């Protein structure tokens, strides 16, 4: 049995060292004196190499219950669009599971696996987690092609509502948050008519959104001042482990959404973001650089902040707030200084 687990470990370390972005979840069990291989992977090369090594060495000693994803239900779709303002992504297909991340309305996700009202999906930053099926609209190939072609809008305020009728005080269709993306059906001076991926239509005020293509063109060359300004939009927002939205947020979710609204894609977690950009020495820090911290013996990044200049930084810790690396400053945080491990420059 240990020979099987050694091969599993070796393949996993080679092809899927980060389980947040690649699946190689295979285990070996002894059932009725028979070794059973059970689990799944979304990596065809890893799947082929694994069973080549297993079959070459032990051709008759196991029973195969390993599934190569996407599974049969997922194979019917090109992917899915998030269909609620903020979808909660969990580590397991149940509401009581840990919140791993969030995804905003209009985000395209790959679909890998279906299980009892949940879908295992992969977001544009490659993060893999489970989302309940009521939070997404599944797309056939033609649906995806259409979505890529239709005019869209992006929501600007941190929080507002989509309405049933083009008048304030109308019944609400659903909440909307900054960064949500909708299909644009109609626009005039008084309202914009939008459509959810599910096809349901609603109305928003023109000042609450921007044409998506226009927004994309405006963030092609992000600058530090805009990063800092975006960060301050969330000042005071409560902390939530796994939060990646204007409703509540964790440290890396905060940096991700701030840079994302400036057209820069960051990975989901601090330990991933520290691999992006270029290393910066403390004396060379510039506004919008990322600061990383760790209280672990292995120095794996566990916290991230955005440098503002003058030794100040803004981050999500309890709430989104400003602290300083300057020991003489009233907002100095000794714990952060003592756990500081480095900085990265994301903006070129």
TrEMBL record:
All residue ranges annotated as the NlpC/P60 domain in the record: 221-347
Biological process terms in GO annotation: proteolysis
GO molecular function: cysteine-type peptidase activity
Keywords: Hydrolase, Protease, Thiol protease
UniProt-listed InterPro entries: NLP_P60_dom, Papain-like_cys_pep_sf, Peptidase_C40, SH3_16
Keyword Metal-binding tagged: no
Pfam family of the protein (one): NLPC_P60
SUPFAM superfamilies: Cysteine proteinases
Keyword rRNA-binding in annotation: no
PROSITE patterns given in the database record: NLPC_P60
Family membership noted in the UniProt record: Belongs to the peptidase C40 family.
Identification of the protein by name: SH3 domain-containing protein
């Amino acid at each position: 049995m240990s020979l099987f687990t050694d091969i599993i470990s070796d393949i996993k370390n080679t092809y899927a060292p980060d389980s947040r972005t690649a699946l190689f979840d295979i285990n070996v069990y002894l059932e009725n004196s028979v070794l059973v291989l059970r689990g799944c992977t979304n990596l065809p090369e890893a799947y082929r190499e694994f069973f080549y090594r297993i079959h070459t060495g032990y051709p008759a000693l196991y029973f195969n219950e390993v599934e190569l994803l996407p599974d049969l239900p997922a194979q019917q779709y090109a992917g899915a669009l998030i269909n609620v303002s903020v979808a909660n992504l969990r580590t397991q297909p149940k509401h009581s599971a840990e919140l791993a991340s969030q995804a905003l309305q209009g985000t395209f996700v790959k679909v890998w696996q279906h299980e009892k009202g949940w879908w295992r999906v992969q977001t544009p930053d490659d993060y893999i987690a489970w989302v309940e099926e009521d939070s997404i609209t599944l797309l056939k190939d033609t649906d995806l092609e259409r979505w890529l072609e239709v005019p869209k809008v992006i929501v600007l305020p941190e929080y507002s509502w989509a309405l049933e009728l083009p008048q304030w005080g109308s019944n609400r269709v659903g909440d909307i948050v900054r960064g949500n993306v909708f299909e644009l059906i109609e626009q005039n001076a008084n309202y914009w008519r939008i459509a959810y991926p599910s096809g349901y239509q609603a109305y928003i005020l023109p000042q609450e959104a921007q044409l998506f293509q226009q927004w994309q063109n405006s963030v092609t060359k992000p600058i530090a001042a805009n990063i800092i300004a975006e960060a301050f939009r969330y000042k005071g927002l409560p902390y939530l482990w796994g939060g990646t939205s204007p409703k509540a947020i964790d440290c890396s979710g905060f940096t991700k959404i701030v840079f994302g609204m400036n057209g820069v894609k960051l990975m989901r977690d601090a330990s991933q973001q520290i691999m992006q950009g270029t290393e910066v020495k403390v004396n060379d820090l510039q506004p919008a650089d990322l600061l990383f911290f760790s209280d672990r013996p292995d120095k794996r990044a566990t916290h991230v902040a955005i440098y503002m200049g003058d030794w100040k930084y803004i981050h999500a810790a309890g709430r989104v707030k400003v602290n300083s690396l300057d020991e003489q400053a009233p907002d100095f945080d000794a714990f952060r200084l003592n756990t500081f491990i480095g900085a990265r420059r994301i903006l070129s």
